[in-house]
Amino acid sequence: MTEFRFIHAADVHLDSPLLGLEQYEGAPAEQIRGATRQALKNLVDLAIAEKAAFVLFAGDLYDGDWRDYNTGLFFSAQMSKLREAGIRAFIAAGNHDAASQITKYLRMPDNVKVLSVQEPESVVLENLGVAIHGQGFPTRAVLSDLSLSYPAPMRGLFNIGMLHTSVDGREGHERYAPCTREGLVSKGYEYWALGHVHKREILHTDPWIIFPGNVQGRHIKETGPKGCTLVAVQDGRVATAEHRDLDVLRWSLCEVDASGADTGEETLNRAVGTLERELKGSDGRALAVRVVIRGACKAHQEFSVNFDRWTNEIRAAAADLSGGNIWIEQVVALTKAEVDPDRVLKRNDTLSDLLRSVMECNIEGIPPGLVEELRELRRKLPEELRPIADLENPGPFQEVIKDVQQILIARLLRRAEDL
Fold first, then answer.
1. How far is CA 311 from CA 45, 111, 291, 314, in A?
2. Which of 14, 161, 335, 359 is 20 to 30 A from 74, comparing alpha carbons?
3. Quick one: CATH architecture of 4-247?
4. Structure pTM?
């Protein structure tokens, strides 16, 4: 039987914005705006370099309706590059690019086949001995098991099923086109090309059932390498199914252990060391990093009292370290004082009483007089600051209380340590 390779990709979300970056000063704006396009270019280049026979897009090629025709024109141009290399492309629409979601259309190059959204459709590639079965989403929310209607495998062919699905449920993803791993296995196909879940996952190896993950991380919950799966087929069986990186900007969650740090400078140096290690593993990609600092330390008070300064110290150090190749998405300080609050609370003195009052403070305990003052203050605030003092929607105000609590608790515990 013919030996060949193909690429399985999903969740390109072409022209989707990278959330949490572009509005910040110093963010790599050009890389942000073009990240999903560059990832698709990388996919096309990989397919050509590896002499892939075809490329599978298992849903969410787009991120919803096109803002204008440029999204479709860009994709069409990339598919034309594949056609010049003799590579076909097959698309099964997902929830973001369902037939009901896209209002603008362009005719694709003749090497592109968009599978039916009305019922499962099969395409036979006789020169390769391959049968591709799949169905796209007719509407955004498909709640039935589409795989039940997929045809039986074609005897003597390498059968591939394309499906955009949550399978039996995945955290953070809508339960669309739900099915079971056992049901997919029992279908008798040699390979299932799945989409919808943005983290790479191999559900089964005989037959192969794979979520390749998305090609480009779009926010801090999509950390680590992103790309596609390159599949090699020999003698009618999958020989290898390897992940290949395609992303151009990588999201990373960096944990910094500040335990025992005496000063903010010492904590900063530890953060820089963590960022250095992250940079070495990025293969030259730009990094969007959330820095999370943990641990009991004397430096806790410095971070609590002057958090803005230390956030920007970390940003400056990251820029200096990487030549602008690391962008700090956010700094989260989860440090705590080395002095145990419970030990201080056991003391029977004024300091322990004050600490207890601060720790128990919440929005329900605000005196009526202060409530009226806050309402008056809210009327005078600029529009963008009014949510902070909105007692009808107390979430943001409660966060302010927590921030103040941390500052006061740090100072009180430091005072207790001195006594």
1. 39, 50, 9, 5
2. 161
3. 4-Layer Sandwich (3.60)
4. 0.80
